[in-house]
Design goal:
Elements: H1 20-26, H2 31-44, H3 53-61, H4 69-78, H5 92-96, H6 113-119, H7 127-141, H8 177-197, H9 203-219, H10 224-247, H11 251-268, H12 271-287, H13 291-305, H14 311-327, H15 331-345, H16 362-375, H17 379-392, H18 398-414, H19 418-431, H20 438-451, H21 458-471
Helix pairs in contact: 2-3, 8-9, 8-10, 9-10, 10-11, 10-12, 11-12, 12-13, 12-14, 13-14, 14-15, 14-16, 16-17, 16-18, 17-18, 18-19, 18-20, 19-20, 19-21, 20-21
Region (Disordered): 99-125
Protein name: Transcriptional regulator
Length: 474
């Protein structure tokens, strides 16, 4: 193993250099105000970024040497005529070329401990992710998310593709800011894959970085700030992996992951993480046929979130409660929670909104309300909201577009609009070519059962044939 003293090649640019050019572009805005301006600019060009004050700080500190492609487009829109170099960023090809790539099956090259914090995350979006999206699909892209770039997984614990296997022994690594950042980055990238491709093909692979994140927590960090970030990152990663299990209809696994996240939140005294864990627990309970548990979990989430200053979060949690009341057949309770959700949503987004809520906009509000009316037996009203959800959905969220379209098909089938239901079902099946979701396939199977007696309608026959083909094991 190469040691700090016997390396034949000097490590260039060990310490991140502050990005003074980008700092000048921020001007007199605070990091939070500038982050809000970035999000607004993203919406203007149809991009989806979750910029916050921490991201701005990392750019200005030089920790992010080049932005991902979405951020680059947003920055070019905000500052016409400026190139990334003018904004203080390094050329993407230079950043990618900083380290030699390990051969397949080889252990990752060792980096001196004092250099690891600054050589692991030189570019926010690696070419591995870009190439996998274009060629290898979501499972291949998860190679970047296994925390292997931490430089802390010994060869005996690394798999052939660089993902961590068994946790390394305690004390065998330095746990610092770079490790915390890698956990946070794994969360973001797994969410990105899920948004575009759905959970299937991702879930099993995503459990590996989750184990690595908790191994880092167990190893411990010297700085409390790093420990806090690891707790938050590991908890969010547990929720993300739990959601992948949830969307894959592995409800038992999802429940376990959400419980792990909730325990992490309680240990760390993190109300934001606790609210998120209860939010997902409520959603899972509703889907699993436990509506009273869904109501209790949603109310617990609202209690945890009451001091977080995010009305959008409280709006989503009110919708989770409404879903539980609808499952119980309590129309009055559902309508009160829906009214609260709309009132809170109307206040608009704020800097206090959690990063994970980037999916929650008008489309999600309409989609979740559609589910409530469907559970209450008002299929025409449900179809109206589902149609609105499909129309409003950002194309970035491919999985959600497929979900809302499948919901619309089911609502229309139950309301007697058989031809329109079949057409919506066909559109959902088209999207399933890009998305792997057991939950959506189950919904379409239910729609097929409802429409089976209407096979004489040509569009229905086409949908039934294609749905049966898609349902066959690969």
């Amino acid at each position: 193993m190469t040691s700090p003293t016997d390396s034949s090649k000097p490590v260039r640019d060990v310490l991140p250099r502050p990005n003074t050019a980008f700092r000048q572009l921020r001007g007199r805005l605070s990091p939070g105000e500038f982050a809000a301006a970035v999000r607004r600019a993203a919406r203007e060009i149809g991009e989806q970024v979750s910029c916050d004050a921490r991201y701005v700080g990392r750019v200005e500190a030089g920790e992010i040497k080049c932005p991902n492609y979405a951020y680059e487009r947003v920055f070019r829109h905000m500052f016409p005529g400026l190139t990334p170099a003018d904004m203080g960023f390094a050329p993407r090809e230079w950043v990618r070329g900083r380290g030699a790539r390990p051969r397949t099956g080889a252990a990752p090259p060792a980096a001196p401990p004092e250099h690891r914090d600054h050589t692991t995350e030189s570019c926010e979006e690696s070419d591995v992710l870009r190439r996998a999206f274009m060629t290898g699909g979501p499972a291949a892209a998860l190679g970047f998310a296994g925390l292997a770039p931490l430089g802390s997984v010994p060869a005996s614990h690394a798999t052939a593709d660089g993902l961590p296997g068994a946790a390394p022994s305690r004390g065998a690594r330095h746990v610092g800011g770079a490790e915390a950042a890698a956990v946070e980055d794994a969360v973001r990238r797994i969410r990105l894959l899920d948004d575009r491709h759905g959970a299937e093909g991702i879930y099993r692979r995503a459990t590996q970085p989750l184990r690595a994140a908790y191994a880092l927590l167990d190893a411990g960090a010297q700085r409390q700030s790093v420990t806090d970030r690891l707790h938050a990152g590991a908890g969010e990663l547990a929720i993300s992996v739990g959601w992948l299990a949830h969307d894959s209809s592995r409800f038992g696994d999802a429940r376990s992951h959400y419980a792990e996240a909730l325990a992490t939140a309680r240990v760390a005294g993190d109300p934001a993480l606790e609210a998120h864990a209860f939010c997902n627990t409520a959603f899972l309970a509703r889907d699993a046929g436990r509506p009273r548990e869904a109501v209790r979990a949603a109310q617990a989430a609202q209690h945890a979130a009451k001091h977080l200053s995010s009305r959008r979060l409280l709006s989503l949690l009110a919708l989770r409660e409404a879903g539980g009341w609808a499952g119980l057949g309590d129309r009055a309770g559902c309508e009160e929670a829906l009214l609260r959700a709309h009132r809170l949503f109307a206040h608009g987004p704020s800097d206090a909104d959690p990063e994970w809520m980037s999916f929650y906009g008008e489309a999600e509000l309409a989609g979740l309300e559609a589910q409530c009316w469907s559970a209450l037996g008002e299929q025409e009203r449900a179809a109206e909201h589902a149609r609105r959800a499909v129309a409003l959905q950002d194309p970035h969220f491919t999985r959600n577009t497929a979900l809302y379209t499948a919901e619309l098909a089911g609502n229309l089938a139950h309301s007697g609009a058989h031809d329109e239901a079949a057409a919506a079902g066909l559109r959902a099946l088209d999207l399933l070519g890009e998305v792997g979701s057991a939950r959506i396939r189950t919904m379409l199977a239910g729609t097929a059962r409802t429409l089976r007696a209407r096979r004489r309608i040509p569009t229905v026959a086409d949908f039934l044939d294609r749905q049966a083909l898609a349902a066959r094991p690969a």
